[in-house]
Structures are given as structure tokens and as C-alpha cells.
């Protein structure tokens, strides 16, 4: 039962990251058509990030250091998005 609860929590966290908490909550609670969970935005901004010198960094440090670096970078982006009430989708 503990594994099931942990798995459900991980799935819910993934849904929140991919769709945003409001939409994930609407889908989880049900009671409406899936298409009704869609949102419309008058304007959007798409940000593509590029780390200058990333290939060079990768050739000089270990894999876990790269994973840590990228995780930290996206954690900072996530905190900034939350602070400024920005809907964030990470692909």
C-alpha cells in the first residue's frame, strides 16, 4: 500500500508539472468533459534555453554532475515561474 501511495503521488506530481496544478486537479476531480479542462491564453511566450559551452562542460565532468547541474537550473526556472505566476511546461 505504501508503494501504491508513493506511485500515485509521483504520478500526480508529474501531471502537475506537465499540465499545471489547476488542470491536473480538474482532471483528477472529474465531473466534466476532458475538453472543458483546456485553457485559452491570449498571448504566450515560448522560451528555449541553451547553455553556451554545454558540450565542453559535459566532456570535463561526470554524468551525475551534469544531471545535478541541469536539475538545479530547471529548479531555479521553476521557482521563478512560480514566483511570477507563470505556467511552465518542461519538455
Automatic annotation (TrEMBL):
Keywords: Lyase. The keyword Lyase applies. This is Guanylate cyclase domain-containing protein. The keyword Lyase applies. Pfam families: Guanylate_cyc. Residues 45-91 form the Guanylate cyclase domain.
Amino acid at each position: 500500500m505504501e508503494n501504491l501511495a508513493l506511485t500515485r503521488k509521483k504520478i500526480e506530481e508529474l501531471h502537475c508539472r506537465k499540465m499545471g496544478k489547476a488542470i491536473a486537479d480538474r482532471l483528477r476531480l472529474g465531473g466534466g468533459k476532458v475538453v472543458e479542462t483546456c485553457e485559452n491564453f491570449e498571448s504566450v511566450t515560448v522560451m528555449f534555453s541553451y547553455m553556451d559551452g554545454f558540450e565542453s562542460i559535459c566532456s570535463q565532468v561526470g554524468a551525475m554532475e551534469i544531471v545535478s547541474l541541469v536539475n538545479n537550473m530547471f529548479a531555479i526556472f521553476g521557482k521563478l515561474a512560480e514566483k511570477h505566476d507563470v505556467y511552465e511546461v518542461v519538455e
